[in-house]
Amino acid sequence: MRTPHALPSAACAVLIVMSGCATKEHSSRPGAATPAPLQKCTELATAFGFANARITGATLEPAGRLVNAGQPVGEHCRVTGRMNERTSPVDGQAYAIGFEMRLPTNWSGRFLYQGNGGTDGVVVAADGGNSLGSGGLLRNALQMGFAVISSDAGHSSAQNPLFGLDPQARRDYGHNAIGTLTPMAKALIRSAYGKGPDRSYIGGTSNGGRQALVAATLYPDAFDGVLAQSPGIHLPRASVANLSNVKRWDTVVTTREVNGQPDYESALPPAERELVARAVLARCDALDGLSDGLVNDVEACRTAFDPARDLPTCTGERDGRCLSAAQKIVLAAVHGPARNGAGEIIYSGFPFDPGIRHPGWAEWKFRSSLRTARNPVSVGFIFSSPPVADLAMATDTRKSAAFALAFDIDRDGSKIFTTSGVYTDKALDFMGTLEAPEFDRLRGRGGKVLVFHGTADPIFSSDHTQAWYRALDAHQQGRAAEFARLFLVPGQGHSRGGPATEQYDGLAALVDWVENGRAPERIVASARGAGNPGGANTDVPADWSPTRTRPLCPYPQLARYTAGDTESAASFACRR
Asked: What is the pLDDT of residue 368?
């Protein structure tokens, strides 16, 4: 039974209601996929038929038309189309689930559903690239021979965020686009290659990571492997938590407006975030056995670093070398759990990490709540039942900023837990409850799950993901690692970036686990320094080797220095 406002007890990892324990063992591994050549492409425009689907184009794309990490992507067939075209009885808008599929001439026998980011509305290139997270992937899924589909999740960019007025568009965005498109995509693959996919995967980052985990619970028979990067687990709760902190930031801003827009970044500008980063490193960097600019031991850092004690307090004007007493109180509060008026936890807190210096941290903490209006309009129009009545807030950032500043976690935040009128689904129902027992069916049929999360993620907390995993492990009687593993990425911001080794190939690791039975004991990640073929990460510190590597370790293990080259993953072991 779910609690409407509060999260469950700390014994259940402050996240998931646990009901019973898993008893079903996973079946034998599915086995490897087998390749097949492309048999049809342009003919698919007229020869392929599927209920409620309309193909709008099918063209053979030559090798090199797409390029990734400086390498040409091979010849492939690009198919575009739309499903479930309709006119909403609620807002009168025309809706459809737009999609693109790319089918490689030299197919591996594998299918990938590519998750969507943000509030969707755009059909991005179906190449299984950066949408799968990790910085600057050197090989995308299309280069690996996957047949890939991407979609707009049921609405256009012009309909963002007001698609939330239509209940079915909410469901399509939350999960139904996956359930609708996947059978069609597999049928299209069969028509193009003469056989269906041997192995099917789903992956994405941010909202796409949430989509992947939701698919594991709602469509477990459709996928063999699930890859979730920086997942928005309980995404509506995360958005409410971020909005609930706007009033706190407002108490310590120094500049009210820049170019007519609120300037909440003045509450903690770059120089002060750099000060915090250095203080965290001073207390926590060496806890894993080496001072190297990374905090691997997140758990030990919780007690080792105290902002009230370890940050200098200003005695006069703020000058970037200290924080005011009020700032330190706010900093601790926004890193703590978001609670409602009754003291119940709505969303987990965030670990202190030197990645706070990353520009993306400010983007999510400040600008997404105000200047870009991402959080106010998502909560107001997509997750609340009923939606906010003032539709002008969708385009007027002054109104969305005012909504954020006036946001009340009880009055406004409670609307993500309710239904009303035609809005018969609560936000967490159409966006995914992700309770531990819901993963039993995927495990039972031999499916595998890999989750990656940066510890400097400012919008979706890695603490929240850790708590989700602990609840899953408790439900699985301490055996969750047999089918699901979580890898934390120290220093990484939201999806990529930050002072981190954040270039890694999670998809290849997942395929190896699903098809060859080799569970990943460690995954080597690289820094994207100058000259990296996938693109340089400007957040990599100057005193790191541009080719630094580190092992990412399955939670709760962490990378501990043993001996040898301090820039090499070979010098680290994954241990508790």
From this structure: 73
Q: Of 430, 473, 429, whose CA–CA distance to 451 is shortest?
A: 473
**Whether residue 457 lies in the annotated active site:** yes
Q: Which has the closest alpha carbon to 22: 454, 525, 471?
A: 471
Longest dimension (CA), the chain: 75
- What are the angstrom distances between the C-alpha of 226 and each of 92, 197, 534? 36, 16, 24
Asked whether the beta carbons of 295 and 455 are under 8 A apart, the reply is yes
Q: Is 535 helix (H, G, I), strand (E, B) or coil?
A: coil
Of 378, 377, 374, 387, which is closest to residue 418 (Cα–Cα)?
387
The active-site residue, picked from 76, 358, 475, 494, is: 494
User: Cα dihedral sign for 474, 478, 481, 485?
Assistant: positive
Determine phi and psi for 439, rounding to 5 degrees: -95, 0
**3 state DSSP class of 542:** coil
Contact 543, 490 (CB under 8 A): no
Q: Are 488 and 453 in contact (CB under 8 A)?
A: yes
Give the H/E segment covering residue 302.
helix 298-304
Does residue 495 have an active-site annotation?
no
Known active-site residue 475: no
Token pair 């809706």 is at which residue?
A: 95
Q: Are 487 and 183 in contact (CB under 8 A)?
A: no
Q: Give, in order, the Cα–Cα distances in Å from 137 to each of 29, 130, 200, 402, 450.
A: 27, 7, 20, 39, 17
**Catalytic residue among 127, 263, 353, 457, which?**
457
CA-based end-to-end distance of the chain: 34
DSSP assignment string, 343-384: S-EEE------GGGGSHHHHIIIIITTTTS-HHHHIIIIIIS
Averaged pLDDT for residues 78-107 = 98
Q: Give 392-420 pLDDT, tens digit per residue.
A: 999 988 899 889 999 999 999 999 999 99
The neighbour count for residue 481, using CB atoms within 10 Å, is: 16
C-beta of residue 215 within 8 angstroms of C-beta of residue 126: no
Contacts 24+ apart (CB under 8 A), 246-250: 246/369, 246/370, 246/404, 246/405, 246/407, 247/405, 247/407, 248/330, 248/333, 248/334, 249/330, 249/334, 249/365, 249/366, 250/405
The three-point CA angle 8-14-15 to 5° equals 75
Structure tokens at 169: 């568009």
Q: Decide yes or no: CATH 1.10.3660.10 for domain 36-234+433-575.
A: no
Over the stretch 187-239, which tens digit does the pLDDT of each residue have?
999 999 999 999 999 999 999 999 999 999 999 999 999 999 999 999 999 99
Which pTM was predicted? Answer: 0.94
Residue extent(s) of CATH 3.40.50.1820 domains in the chain: 36-234+433-575
